[in-house]
Every structure is written in C-alpha cells, then in structure tokens.
Amino acid sequence: MARIRVGVIGAGGIAQIEHVPNLLRLKDLFEIVGVCDPSRTARSFIAERYAIATFESIEHLLHVPIDAVVIASPDALHKEQALAALAQGLHVFCEKPLCYGSADIAELIAARNKAKRVLQVGYMKRFDPSYEAALDLLPGTASTLRHISVEVNDPDAWPFIRHHDWRRGDDVPKALIDEVARKQKEQVARAVGQKLDDVAFRGFCNAYSSALVHDVNAVHGLLDRLGIEDGEITGAALYAGGDGGHGSVKLRGGQALWSMTHLTVPKLPDYRERITLYFDDAALELEFPSPWLNHQPTRLTLKRGRDHRLSVEDIRTGYEEAFIEELKFFAAAIKGEAPQRNTAEEAARDMDLLCGLARATLPSPRFSGEREGPIAQQWEGEGPLARKRQIGSA
Q1: Are 360 and 381 contacting, i.e. CB atoms less than 8 angstroms apart?
Q2: What angle separates helix 129-137 from helix 213-226, to the nearest 10 degrees?
Q3: Where do the domains of the chain lie?
Q4: Cα–Cα nearest to 352, from 254, 261, 249
Q5: Beta-strand (E) ranges in 122-253?
Q6: What is the DSSP letter of 125?
Q7: 102 pLDDT tier (thresholds 50, 70, 90)
Q8: Which of 54, 22, 244 is nearest to 151 (CA)?
Q9: Are the CB atoms for 97 and 75 separated by under 8 Å?
Q10: Among residues 328, 330, 303, which one has the least CA distance to residue 314?
C-alpha cells in the first residue's frame, strides 16, 4: 500500500504541536492532504508553517481524495465527525474522549463494522515503552495485589508549550462556539443520565473525560493483564471548581482498592502523574512526564522486599515518543499488518466507569435516564453499593 493520505480535522494546540508535526515526521507512512478548522488564524498558521492545504469545514475536507482522518477537534464534535468519515469509507484516528457515553460509542462501533475500517482512540500512553515494559513485569497472579494509586497534579499545558511554534485560533465564530457548547451539554446529559451542576459538569468534562480518562484506560490495560475483572465504585468527588476529580473502585471483592485523583493546579508549573501498583511484597510505579514534553522517558520503578531488605530497580527501555508510536500503529492496522488497538470498545468501558463516577458524586444514587453499562447500574439503586452514601455528596 502506498502512503496513507490523511486529513486532519481540527487545528488547535494538539494538532499544531503533536499530530501535524508527527504525521510529517512519518512521511514514509502518511501524506497530509489537508487540515480543516473554522479558525482563519489556525488555518493560516498551518498553511504558512507547513505548506499544507487548509479547509474551513469538514465537508470541504471530505471532498478531496483521502484514506483516513485524524480527529483533533472539540470533544463534542467527535461523534458526528467520526460518523461522517466512516460513512465515506475512511479510517479514523480520534482523540480522547471518543464520546462522553457508551451509547454514542455503540453507534460508532456499528458504523466502523459496517465500513470495515479502523477506528483507533488516541490513548497514547498504551504505546509508551515504559508502560509496555510494566505490563511484562506484572506478576502472573493477581492474588497479591493490594492497591492501585493514580495521582496527577497538572498545571495544564502552558509551561510546556511556550517554546513551541504554534498559534491559538481565537477567531472561531461565536455562533459555532455556542453550538458546540450546546452539543456538549446534550451529550453529557445523555451519558450521565441526570443534570449536573456547574462544578460537576466542568469536572466531568475536564478532570474526568479529558484527563483521568488516560489513566483509566492505562489501568484497565494493567487489570486485563492481571486477569482482574472490573470492580465496584465505592466513592467519587468533583471539587476545586471542577479542576479536581477523584474516584475509588473496589477490586477483587474488596481485597484491593483502586483510587484515582487528578487536580489542575493552574499557577504551579509542575506536572506529576503516577500510577503505582502495590503488591504484598513489591510496588511497581510509572511516573509520566507532561505529555507535551516529547521523548521524555516515563520513569518505571520496581521496588521489592525480601528478608527485610528493600531493593529498588529503575527500568528504562527506550526513548520512543508515544504520540508517534500510536500513529505508526494506526498505519500498521490500516495496512493489515497488525490488529487494531485502542478500540472503541475499550473507550466505551472507560467512559462507563467515568459516567458511573460522575453519578456517584450526585446527592442521590437514583436517577432517571439511559443506562450506560454495568458499572453505571450500581448508582441506579440496583447494585450492592446503591444504599451507600457517596463521597462528595451533599
């Protein structure tokens, strides 16, 4: 197969700083045919900086000959744009979250199956060489797992992108911004099943669906390798005006706990993201750098206890960039050289958990609306935790 002709949908920061430059680096695999964005400023930057054709709308982009799209647009547009691309017979790489709820993702799965195309979600951490090494270091049994801890403090992107050559598209028409906001509210309400207040809505969209979703997906991969089934939600909170999100999940029938917290600290230019697994006699920790710092290795540490002695091993397997590796795999899946990874089914599982956590922050566990999945049922008054008082409730 010749180079894959790709169109990029959305020319914001993630496209300008990561996807467009990375696709150009992979010139043996991809040819960027065009980039579409409603911002004239963003389009001008792409055209001037990279000499790439630009289009104002996805409709114009889809009229040119392409094989695949990379969707890097606002979250609320992912579903409709992915459906439009699949209907054209195109392969789709879509940034996370794929959608806010698994019912919407089910529509994309049906469209993917009908089109017989690749639909890959942008969970780049799965391609981090240290993450892949951590999978191989896990014990062959889950019987000694005691706790999984996810802790993230994040100032947002600003300290890590100041040195990049990019341009903010701040001239999008207000009517379009308002329309995207309306779609976002509708999609979140459909996914969660109950109206959220301003803090919960912001926290679900940002702390949960934009940030923790990466860690949720990564932990799900670790649990799968250990052979541990999805657990039961024991509590959740959205706090700090929606900048903070917390959740906890009981694993192995209560023999282990998974706790997760993401907090944006906007005036502290420090980023730390840690996933730590504690076993009876060992701890395995991944400490990720800011995702905006390319080729910065994730620190993988294995601590062991034996005969009252502690041994610590730092493991480094390479400097490959996860943002680039995921695109390489996208190309391999399109060409039939590798099975699909980071599937829509995995994204649905991730969002089922995050929607369940959002419901767990509400004053009452009962709500009227659409069920999203088995995790969500716990907060409908049917599951074993239905009568528990939720962390973060009024």
Answers
A1: no
A2: 30
A3: 4-125, 126-321+344-380
A4: 249
A5: 145-154, 232-239, 244-251
A6: G
A7: very high
A8: 244
A9: yes
A10: 303
Q: 4-125: what fold?
A: Rossmann fold (3.40.50)
**From residue 282, how far is each of 28, 136, 164, 302 by CA, in Å?**
43, 15, 40, 7
pLDDT score for 296: 94
Q: How far apart are CA 161 and CA 71, in angstroms?
A: 21
Backbone angles phi and psi of 121, in degrees to 5: -100, 145
Amino acid present at 300: L
Measuring CA to CA, how many Å separate 14 from each of 8, 116, 166, 167, 169?
11, 28, 10, 11, 12
Calpha distance 317→132 (Å, rounded): 9
90-104, 269-283, 315-329, 377-391: segment of lowest average pLDDT: 377-391
Helices 102-115 and 344-360 cross at an angle (nearest 10°) of 170
Give the tens place of pLDDT for each residue, 338-354: 999 999 999 999 999 99
CB 94 within 8 A of CB 71: yes
4-125 and 126-321+344-380: identical CATH topology: no
The amino acid that residue 62 corresponds to is L
Residue 383's pLDDT band (boundaries 50, 70, 90)? very low
* Residue 97: cis peptide before it, omega within 30 degrees of 0: yes
Across the range 134-138, mean pLDDT stands at 97
What is the topology classification, in CATH, of domain 126-321+344-380?
Dihydrodipicolinate Reductase; domain 2 (3.30.360)
